Amino acid sequence: EDQVTQSPEALRLQEGESSSLNCSYTVSGLRGLFWYRQDPGKGPEFLFTLYSAGEEKEKERLKATLTKKESFLHITAPKPEDSATYLCAVFTSGTYKYIFGTGTRLKVLA
Amino acid sequence: DGGITQSPKYLFRKEGQNVTLSCEQNLNHDAMYWYRQDPGQGLRLIYYSQIVNDFQKGDIAEGYSVSREKKESFPLTVTSAQKNPTAFYLCATSGLRAGFGETQYFGPGTRLLVL
Questions:
Q1: Number of Cβ pairs < 8 A linking chain A and chain B
Q2: Which of A6, A9, A13, A99 holds its CA 20 to 30 A away from the CA of B52?
Q3: Do A100 and B105 touch (CB under 8 A)?
């Protein structure tokens, strides 16, 4: 069964304390991995799309990487405004659907 | 101003009532999707459409209905058959590419509450 697991469920960081969020997947043929940021009461905001193992993308303090089994969202020197829930989703050739993880709730303390 | 609009932001449903959530896009995307978000769960697909006048059931279609009469619009009706409709509803759009998932873009969401 296609599955996406995000860890940790929740993470508290001090401002400036770098860390990584994990998205591991077991799917029958990855055809795209997507990272989103979601603020409370709002729709998810697109961050990155990755298609191939070894691919990396960066945007400000965020960097997404992809291997054959998982993806990491690295947050360098986070600020309080980075506090949000980060969602991971995959598109598989098995079902041709998007499968979402349950997210990581990030809180960055000033 | 390109984007996806959903209305209303909040919707209250009475027992036995059907309600309709609106989703409009001007991104010229072919595919449109409806998801339901509940606390502690990942987004779950209700319905999706890749072309006008055609749509497919997702994983939790029971108690919901949709139409796709225009490329720009994909309204979702929550019927009285949906016994637990309280949730945050998200509309998304994407382009289409054979064999691959294109990036989905999401609207601001509609929160449905039962009176």
A1: 58
A2: A99
A3: no
